[in-house]
Design a protein that fits this description.
- The protein has 15 helices and twelve strands.
- The strands form three sheets. The protein has a four-stranded parallel beta sheet with strand order 2-1-3-4, with helices on both faces. It has a four-stranded parallel beta sheet with strand order 6-5-7-8, sandwiched between helices. It has a four-stranded parallel beta sheet with strand order 10-9-11-12, with helices on both faces.
- It is of the alpha/beta class and 299 residues long.
- Helix 3 packs parallel to helix 4, helix 4 packs across helix 15 and helix 12 runs parallel beside helix 13.
- The protein folds into three domains: 101 residues, Rossmann fold; 100 residues, Rossmann fold (3-Layer(aba) Sandwich); 84 residues, NadA-like (Rossmann fold).
- Strand 7, helix 8 and strand 8 form a beta-alpha-beta unit.
- Iron/sulfur cluster binds next to helix 9.
- One of its GO terms (cellular component) is cytosol.
- Keywords: 4Fe-4S, Iron, Iron-sulfur, Metal-binding, Pyridine nucleotide biosynthesis, Transferase.
- InterPro entries: NadA, NadA_sf.
Length: 299
């Protein structure tokens, strides 16, 4: 199917396609909206189409469904998943709530609907500072990304931020030795890293930022070459926006994001895929955490 036929079918089916920066470029190329989790979550509340296709991993489809309970939400591959989303359990949250009276649970968006339902706030790497700044409670249980929590907690010395030990396996695998080697190989290139990397890696780079934060920071630097430490799918956006710059992307490949294929999007449009389902009681409670995130970012 050529791109024009796909667009026609999409219009006919009243569908909109969202894609994360980490999926393959052929999928990004046909999407209506491409962005990081925060952008996609905000955008999801504004679209008119009845059918939403989320080209990303499972928690992203769930998030879309929670924000749009009356719409049909589809994922190209229901098995495309984020391992970090499953590293925290409801029991761990309950134990922490019993231990502290004055506790807020802040969950990274890379978490299941069930975990969001047991949290007070959701956050993404793009808005984590604003969300933590909005929390009134003294104690914060930050789940599941221990690296993101550890990379941000110094900005809130007045809070007791307890970070869970979850992590993104592919960002966590980057080492400060990788950074040293890359700097030696490309001495004129500043290093930009995602805060899902370990704190010792973040300490050794020039800029830490969410996916959209990295893209913005690359746009501001005069450097002609940049080293990028996040999932390699970001290259498509970087090369499109900054064709005059050269990018060196350390090999960070998310298996779940790479399970998203164009052929599966076509199958959805032809009516051959099941849709995402989130039980109503879970959805209502999880939406509260997502709404608290969106409200914190408005102020
Ligand atoms: S890059 Fe890491 S955190 Fe993001 S979806 Fe993949 S495994 Fe999960």
């Amino acid at each position: 199917m050529n791109p024009e036929e796909l667009m026609e079918l999409k219009r006919e089916k009243d569908a909109v396609i969202f894609a994360h920066y980490y999926v393959d470029k052929e999928v990004q190329a046909i999407a209506d909206y491409v962005g990081d989790s925060f952008f996609l979550a905000k955008k999801a509340t504004t679209v008119k189409e009845k059918n939403i296709i989320m080209a990303g991993v499972y928690f992203m489809g769930e998030t879309m469904k929670i924000l749009n309970p009356d719409k049909h939400v589809y994922l190209p591959d229901m098995k495309a998943d984020c391992p970090m989303a499953h590293m925290i359990t409801v029991e761990e949250i309950q134990e922490m709530r019993q231990k502290y009276d004055d506790l807020a649970v802040v969950c990274y968006v890379n978490s299941t609907a069930e975990i969001k339902a047991h949290s007070d706030y959701c956050c993404t790497s793009a808005n984590v500072k604003k969300v933590l700044g909005a929390v009134k409670e003294k104690n914060i249980f930050f789940v599941p990304d221990g690296n993101l929590g550890a990379n941000i907690k110094h900005l809130f010395p007045e809070k007791n931020i307890i970070c869970h030990s979850g992590h993104c396996p592919v960002h966590h695998a980057v080492t400060s030795e990788d950074v040293r080697r890359l700097r030696e190989e490309y001495p004129n290139a500043p290093v930009f890293a995602h805060p899902e990397c370990q704190p010792e890696v973040i300490e050794s780079v020039d800029v830490q930022g969410s996916t959209s934060g990295i893209i913005e920071a690359v746009g501001k630097t005069d450097a002609k070459e940049c080293i990028i430490l996040t999932e390699e799918g970001i290259l498509w956006e970087l090369e499109n926006r900054f064709p005059e710059k050269k990018f060196y992307v350390h090999e960070i490949v998310c298996d779940g994001m790479k399970q998203v294929y164009l052929k599966d999007i076509v199958s959805i449009l032809k009516g051959q895929k099941e849709e995402i389902f989130v039980p109503e009681d879970v959805s209502v409670r999880a939406k509260r955490a997502l709404d608290n995130m969106l409200n914190a970012c408005e102020n």
